[in-house]
Amino acid sequence: MDYLGEIIALGIDSVIFGVCLKQYFHCKNAITAVKGAEFHEVGPQLEDLVNNTSDNKIGYIAIRGTVKPLGKPLNSINNRKLTGVVQKLKIKEHVIARTTAGFWSDQERTIHKVYNTVPFALQGQGQAVEILEPLSADILDLDMVSNTFEPTVPSFADHLWGFFTGVRQRGLQSTEELLREGAVITGIGELSRTKSKILALQPPLNGTPFYLTSMSISSLFRKLNERKKTYRLLCIMFGAIGMLIGGIVLRRYWKDRTEQRMAEELRQSLAESRKERRQRVRDTDLRDDQLCIICRTNPREIILLPCGHVCLCEDCADDITTNCPMCRTPIEQKAAAYII
Ligand SMILES: [Zn+2]
Ligand SMILES: [Zn+2]
């Protein structure tokens, strides 16, 4: 567990790196796919194109047409005259919160978000292509219809409450966005014929992104390229951080290993010198009462405290840690005893 901090940091870094890498490849694949997609204005030629395929399906195609609801359109809440097919309503709370450093900073939090949709198609030259699952689009461009901010007028009690809780209400921001009827947009996705024999554009099954955008294809390219660059930069950054942490771990590991090796060498050289010393002692013919009481081979070398018995050699003393083998007194300390 010596490296717990580094391992946690490395884990978090790897997760972020993985997410960025995934997004980078997602963008890269999206760019390749959009590049390979044919561009068409919505028109009768789409029927022929789909009819000419073996499975009545074009895997990836870009088509541009005018948004037309298939039924009753949605009415804007804020401007009754405006109609659309996808509506996004959002309420955000703006607060000033005290940060851990003691400063007050502006923060916002989405407290309500809702989408409303009605079936719609892209139309052009008497042809209509129904758009399925518009909310699954990676890019769904909507027009901002209204954006209002209602500031909170705080009472004295609110001020006091805010002082203690560290959060002060600033106000509520409500926005309404709409994909308007009559807007000209480009849809990029899979074009096929539905069971009811009409043409429909939907998210491709293979996971290639689906786009409903008011941008031109070249602007979309630019946007995707920018995203790709951003993710590449993030990958490089988090990759470098990962390598740095990895380097630190390796360096510490190597240092620890060297220290361990040195300690082991020291222990061995001590054991070596002990052996030598014993050899000299043994040459002088030890009396029976000078031998370790456990192994009966080595000389007595260790004094046990507090009882003060000198009855063990160093090797046996390593194994005996609790009580003195002669008087059972608990061992508090051991020390080298030089009798000779
Ligand atoms: Zn011994
Ligand atoms: Zn003792």
TrEMBL record:
Annotated gene: LOC108628582
Transmembrane segments: 231-254
Major subcellular location class: mitochondrion
GO cellular component, one term: mitochondrial outer membrane
Keyword entries, A-Z: Membrane, Metal-binding, Mitochondrion, Mitochondrion outer membrane, Transferase, Transmembrane, Transmembrane helix, Ubl conjugation pathway, Zinc, Zinc-finger
Protein name, UniProt field: RING-type E3 ubiquitin transferase
Domain RING-type: 292-328
Xref: Pfam families: GIDE, zf-C3HC4_3
Catalytic activity: S-ubiquitinyl-[E2 ubiquitin-conjugating enzyme]-L-cysteine + [acceptor protein]-L-lysine = [E2 ubiquitin-conjugating enzyme]-L-cysteine + N(6)-ubiquitinyl-[acceptor protein]-L-lysine
Protein's cellular compartments: Mitochondrion outer membrane
EC number(s) on file: 2.3.2.27
Membrane topology category: Multi-pass membrane protein
Molecular function in Gene Ontology: ubiquitin protein ligase activity; zinc ion binding
Gene Ontology annotations of biological process type: protein ubiquitination
